[in-house]
Write a structure and sequence with these properties.
The complex is a heterotrimer of chains A (353), B (152) and C (102).
Chain A (H helix, E strand, L loop, with lengths): L1 H12 L2 H9 L1 E3 L8 H20 L10 H10 L4 H29 L7 H23 L4 H12 L8 H9 L6 H33 L16 E3 H26 L3 E3 L19 H9 L3 E2 L2 E2 H17 L1 H4 L6 H25 L1
Antiparallel strand pairs in A: 1-2, 4-5
Helix pairs in contact in A: 3-5, 3-10, 4-5, 5-6, 5-10, 5-14, 6-7, 6-9, 11-12, 11-14
Chain B lengths: L9 H28 L8 E5 L1 H4 L5 E7 L2 E7 L5 E5 L10 E3 L4 E4 L4 E4 L4 E3 L8 E7 L2 E6 L7
Antiparallel strand pairs in B: 1-10, 2-3, 3-4, 4-9, 5-6, 6-7, 7-8, 9-10
Chain C lengths: L4 H26 L18 E3 L5 H37 L2 H4 L3
Classes of the chains: A mainly alpha (353), B alpha+beta (152), C mainly alpha (102).
């Protein structure tokens, strides 16, 4: 019967093209193969986000008056709502963790070498979208902490010369963080970002399939072929083991360490102590904090923001800078990856002290 | 390969165990999802209202109250007896109205009619209006679900 | 060739067996524990903070049962997946896949 369904679908969709490709696709086996698992791990957590997101959206009310109360209701009244919310919150962190690990492994292994530059660039945009998902989602419970963190976060673009104030007004839906900001962030979080993400993901995944798995630098130029295993079923079974373990860890953490909910934000209250953004923004937050108020005649904040944007642009075009991967420049770029890891770690920890 | 006297080949056995267990595990995830999506809706067991709101009702009139998220109707009969109904048409759930002059409940959706005791007398409604038990205790009006015997 | 049916039957049988096992476990966790209904949402004693957690003892044991069941499932499935991987690798080395012309 399975063969019957398969041939029925194939007659209409032409599925054999895909299935043939999947059976022929191979994955290289070498000491860095473990990093190949990070991509599908991201997909796994994103899928969990979509499913839990679909469920949360059945009860969440994206207005100033009801946002906090609706989350409270999900956590107390709706059966097992607290688990769904907890999974959604933790899976976000897991997903962004793996996004960073994936990015760093590509950076260090220089997998973005020609012809994979576009894969890298679509990946950087995917990173941006993931961070925006986190940023917009963080506001939605509308408690004191997330309200204040959003106030700070949306104030930062104001430091950009010329367009800064306009960007802030665009993000906030006005000059201040209001109910309009909440509704706007909600629309971005559940509607716009998913669309953009799907488009970019399609491009990203297509490119990966089209160009095949990249090899580490050392393997290039070697005469003997690198050992490979077929994608299906050998690599997929291995991936399934990784997924199962990750799901087990995610659910255990979500069940035993569920997030709490503070009371609804008071727009007129002074900022609470200990405002901080989500952990993945901590290093940026701290970077902003250490810049002095003025450097010569330029505002310190403006300098910091401009530097970050500049670094971001360089980062986006990294494959084109790293055109001689084996040379000194290439080694420095690899070193920069480790410097970044150290920097992010130190800055994040510092911001918590 | 499958030995003649064995039920399954090794491959079928492994596939069966993995598939079966994975299926059972995923099915166990379906339970919380379904519970979440279909939260239990409970009607209230009782609703307590201040009697003062209903003391001055004219005979043969009706006053509404909230029965959970449904419409509830308190009716004062001609003999000053209070009764309570769930004011939801038994046909397709529209809220009904009481027409004093005609002494009938009327559902505008499909022309359903009930007499002054909530018995369905005309139109599509298949059953009478649901009754609720009403008790007056001191200054309170206590409305409860009707017990099976019909008494409070 | 190998009949497809037995593998499906085994899977279905195992599936039902495990489901009922899980159900029995869950039900037994409910016995002897008084059922405490969750309070209505209006009763938020401390408006300061709401912690999401299981509402009562019955749910607490149910959750622990689920976590135990989840990890057992994970390890069982991983164990069998490893067997499948060993087999798949062996077949690949024997050029079983490259020889196959579908």
């Amino acid at each position: 019967m399975r063969k019957g369904i398969q041939s029925w679908l194939d007659e209409r969709f032409g599925l054999t093209g895909i299935t043939d490709f999947l059976t022929k696709k191979t994955v290289p086996l070498h000491k860095h193969t473990i990093w190949y698992y990070t991509g599908s791990a991201i997909l796994l957590f994103f899928a969990i986000q979509v499913v839990t997101g679909f469920m949360l959206i059945l009860y969440y009310k994206p207005t100033l008056e009801m946002a906090n109360a609706s989350v409270a209701r999900i956590m107390t009244d709706v059966p097992l709502g607290w688990i769904i919310r907890s999974v959604h919150s933790w899976s976000a962190s897991f997903m962004i963790t793996f996004v960073f690990v994936h990015l760093l492994s590509i950076w260090i292994a220089k997998s973005y070498r020609r012809p994979r530059e576009l894969t890298w660039m679509s990946g950087v945009l995917l990173l941006l979208i993931s961070l925006l998902f986190g940023f917009t989602g963080y506001l939605l419970p509308w408690d004191d902490l997330s309200f204040s963190a959003t106030k700070v976060g949306t104030d930062i673009p104001r430091a950009i010369p010329v367009v800064g104030a306009w960007v802030t007004r665009l993000l906030r839906g006005g000059d201040d963080v209001t109910g309009d900001t909440l509704t706007r962030f909600f629309g971005i979080h559940v509607c716009m970002l998913p669309v953009f993400l799907f488009l970019l993901l399609a491009i990203h995944i297509y490119l990966v399939q089209k160009q095949g798995m990249s090899l580490p630098l050392e393997a290039e130029g070697k005469q003997e072929k690198v050992k490979e295993i077929p994608f299906w079923p050998n690599f997929v079974f291995r991936e399934m083991i990784v997924w199962l373990l990750l799901v087990g860890i995610l659910f255990s953490v979500a069940i035993f360490f569920p997030p709490s909910l503070e009371k609804a934000a008071d727009v007129m209250a002074p900022a609470p102590e200990g405002i901080k953004p989500e952990w993945y923004f901590l290093f940026l937050f701290q970077t902003l904090k250490i810049f002095p108020a003025h450097v010569l005649f330029i505002s310190g904040e403006m300098l910091a923001v401009l530097l970050m944007i500049f670094a971001g642009v360089l980062f986006f075009f990294l494959p084109f800078f790293d055109n001689k991967p084996t040379g000194t420049k290439g080694k420095i770029i690899t070193l920069l990856a480790y410097v970044f890891i150290l920097y992010a770690l130190v800055m994040s920890v510092w911001s918590l002290l | 390969m499958k030995i003649k006297h064995s039920l399954f080949s090794r491959r079928q056995f492994l596939n069966g165990i993995i598939g079966g267990w994975l299926g059972a595990f995923l099915a166990s995830l379906v339970y919380p999802v379904v519970k979440f999506i279909f939260p239990p809706y409970k009607e209230p067991d009782e609703v307590i209202l201040p009697f003062s709101d209903f003391k001055d009702m004219r005979p043969n009139s009706v006053k509404s109250f909230a029965w959970g998220s449904k419409l509830g109707l308190v009716k004062k009969n001609d003999d000053d007896v209070y009764v309570a109904f769930v004011g939801v048409c038994t046909h397709l759930d529209c809220n009904v109205a009481y027409l004093n002059e005609q002494r009938k409940f009327f559902c505008a959706c499909h022309d359903g009619w009930y007499d002054e005791n909530g018995i369905n007398i005309g139109g599509p409604p298949p059953k009478p209006l649901r009754r609720l038990t009403l008790v007056i205790a001191q200054e309170e009006l206590i409305i409860k679900k009707e017990s099976p015997e019909g008494n409070s | 060739m190998i009949k497809k049916r037995p593998s499906f039957l085994l899977a279905a049988f195992l599936f039902l067996l495990l489901l009922s096992w899980g159900g029995v476990f869950y039900c037994s966790a409910q016995q002897g524990v008084a059922q405490v209904q969750t309070s209505t949402p209006q009763e938020k004693e401390e408006p300061e903070k709401i912690v999401g957690d299981p509402q009562d003892a019955k749910q607490k044991t149910g959750i622990l049962v689920f976590v135990a069941w989840m990890w057992i499932s994970v390890f069982v499935i991983v164990y069998f997946l490893r067997l499948k991987i060993k087999e798949a690798d062996r077949l690949y080395r024997l050029r079983f896949y490259s020889a196959k012309k579908t």
